[in-house]
Design goal:
By secondary structure, the protein is of the alpha/beta class. It contains seven helices and seven strands; from the N terminus they run βαβαβαβαβαβαβα. It has a seven-stranded parallel beta sheet with strand order 4-3-2-1-5-6-7, sandwiched between helices.
Length: 199
């Protein structure tokens, strides 16, 4: 069963990467989320794939909410065109606020920061801190090693088989968004049921 995604947190590189396909995917994500009426929640930057996502969503008439640490804001890296821009004190506050504002999480290609951000949300879902899905948009096979790593985690007993469905890795954005909008089906890390949603 799917529900509408009111907001999706997008994690991606603050660089553009070496392939033009990465920027094209970022533009596609921003535009598609705007066309679906889904708010883009992201790291608030104007640079790299982050800026491309925001620009594309805004150009398509979408709502873009940025969350940026003060240290980066003060270096003039913030996107001044965001619908809303939250300036927080720490990276920890940034991630917590993005998690609160979003219904699901979507990772595009990026570096260590991108991986860390989406992995934390995946972990929080495992621990039932929230019941929100995470997805990896597999542009030109960028996240294929993550698929292999997830399979190994399950095979070696570090991730419960039913919990592997917290994350989805797919090259097709529409398919990925439909999965992200579906209700959670996993148990918690120890096999218990998910907590009831807060009314």
């Amino acid at each position: 069963m799917s529900t509408a995604l009111g907001a999706v947190a997008v994690f991606c590189g603050s660089s553009h990467g070496t392939s033009p396909a990465y920027a094209a995917a970022a533009e596609h994500v921003g535009r598609t989320l705007a066309e679906r009426g889904t708010t883009v929640v992201y790291g608030g930057g104007r640079v790299g794939l982050m800026g491309t996502v925001a620009d594309a969503a805004l150009a398509a008439g979408g709502t873009v909410v940025g969350v940026i640490p003060r240290s980066l804001h003060d270096r003039e890296l913030a996107h001044t065109g965001c619908t809303e821009l939250h300036v927080v004190d720490t990276m920890h506050e940034r991630k917590a606020l993005m998690a609160d504002l979003a219904d699901a999480f979507l990772a595009l290609p990026g570096g260590a920061g991108t991986l860390e951000e989406v992995a934390e949300q995946w972990t929080w879902a495992q621990l039932t801190i929230h019941a929100k899905r995470s997805g990896f948009l597999d542009v030109e096979g960028f996240w294929s090693p993550m698929r292999a790593m997830l399979d190994r985690m399950v095979a070696d007993g570090f991730v419960r088989e039913e919990q592997q469905h917290i994350v989805t890795i797919d090259p097709d954005l529409d398919t990925l968004l439909d999965v992200l909008a579906s209700a959670p089906t996993w148990t918690d890390k120890w096999g218990g049921t998910l907590p009831s949603p807060t009314p």
